[in-house]
Amino acid sequence: MEQAEAAKNEILQIKRKQIDEDQGATYFLDYTQRFTEAHPVANTHVINTTLDPALQAAAFDAVTQGCSRIDKALRRNRSGAQVQAALVALDARTGEVLAMIGGRTYDRSQYNRTTDALRQPGSAFKPIVYAAALRSRAYTLASTVSDRPTAFVYEGGTASYAPNDFRGGFTNRDVTLREALSHSLNVPAVRLAEEVGLSRIAELAEECGLPRPRPYPSMALGTSELSPLQLASAYMAFADGGRAIRPVPIKYQRSDEYPSSGPSPTGSEFVFSPEIAYLITSGMESVINSGTAAKARRMGVQGAAAGKTGTTDRDGWFVGYTPGLVCAVWVGFDDDRRLGLTGAESALPIWADFIEQAIRLRPELGGQTFRRPAGIVSADIDPATGMLATPYCAQHFSEVFVRGTDPLSD
Question: Number of structural domains, the chain?
Fold first, then answer.
């Protein structure tokens, strides 16, 4: 009795949960609950999720440290607001959600930016444009397109759109599709989309799991809003040989009716051939090896890696993948104020930090090369024309093609 009375009279000590104890996993739990509500299994009493605790911790560390670096940079630029970020990592073969960070801390904001924040992806949308071009079989990565100031007319000639690159300028020459993709040149992307057909671009985007964009020339530069999870899901088609796989947070469920059942089907179909997936992957390898995301290598990312930066005035993106792991990172402000940093400056360092840790924790998610389909051939190309090189060409480089679509010899 005395012990009970003493316990009653003791002042209750409430210990606030430390934010690092959660490591952002509650965002994933909220997403899983919504998923199970949308794909119910009757009388479920056990759910085994796909979350990898070690990768979740690595993602939390990468976002926390990356946002702290950005905060310091923005304070130097006299902006006192706190930046936000989202990260989602998917198994490239199954679509299983291995890690999810919906914001800097769940304690302060339960808003899951990975699933619910709809933002313009900028140039991170461009691989869809290039995939549609290759799917038409009228283009190869060696095809050339003009990168000169251009006004694109639409709405029956009553409106025009004159894009330039994020920080201005043009190369003022014809460039190959590989160069245009790796250096994220805007005019070639819009020109290519117009030539292929804006409706074809919109159709492929929808097939890859994105909201169908409105068919305006600016669509090619990622002006239609989407979530980081949607964009990561779309990149699954490039990482998994052309197969569009929807993300899933559950490995299996147990219920009275189904002792051990897998997750409900979420979509898995080929939207383009494995050869096209390989070619776009090769183009996005150039983004990391020598293009707008080249700093990823300096940050320690090794082995096979492909991806694309995305930049708008308000958002920074990087979406990339290894042979076994797809990861999307978004950086921006909740109030939609101007970020003023490129995707390479804001999102890429978080992505590279996470990928480097993830491959160290789970080496099977990495690899030295991407699987090359049998229908791919190589040829030496004249960089000035995009055609097959001859002994008279002063310069040449090796390019890859789908068998039967080689360019004419110059």
Answer: 2
Tell me the residue range of the domain where 402 lies.
Answer: 374-410
Establish if 132 belongs to a structural domain: no
Residue 319 and residue 308 in contact, taking contact as beta carbons nearer than 8 Å: yes
Write down the pLDDT at residue 155.
Answer: 86
In the three-class reduction of DSSP (H, G, I as helix; E, B as strand; rest coil), residue 318 is classed as strand
Polymer length of the chain: 410
Extract the tokens encoding 91. Answer: 């198994």
Query: What's the confidence (pLDDT) of residue 265?
Result: 47
Tens of pLDDT, residues 275-305: 999 999 999 999 999 999 999 999 999 999 9
Listed residue (357, 337, 340) closest to 349, CA to CA: 357
Residues 260, 393 share a domain: no
Per the domain annotation, does 401 fall within a domain?
yes
> Which residues 6+ apart lie within 8 Å of 216 measured at CB?
154, 161, 198, 223
Alpha helices in 77-185 (DSSP H): 113-116, 126-135, 177-182
**Residues 28, 78: one domain?**
yes
Asked whether residue 244 falls in the same domain as residue 367, the answer is: yes
pTM: 0.91
* Residue 400 contacts residue 142 (beta carbons within 8 Å): no
pLDDT tens figures, 341-387: 999 999 999 999 999 999 999 999 999 999 999 999 999 988 777 88
Other Cβ atoms closer than 10 A to 251: 15
C-alpha dist (Å) from residue 101 to 1, 23, 256: 48, 8, 33
Does one domain contain both 364 and 398? no
Q: Tell me how far apart the alpha carbons of residues 49 and 310 are, in angstroms, rounded to a whole number.
A: 30
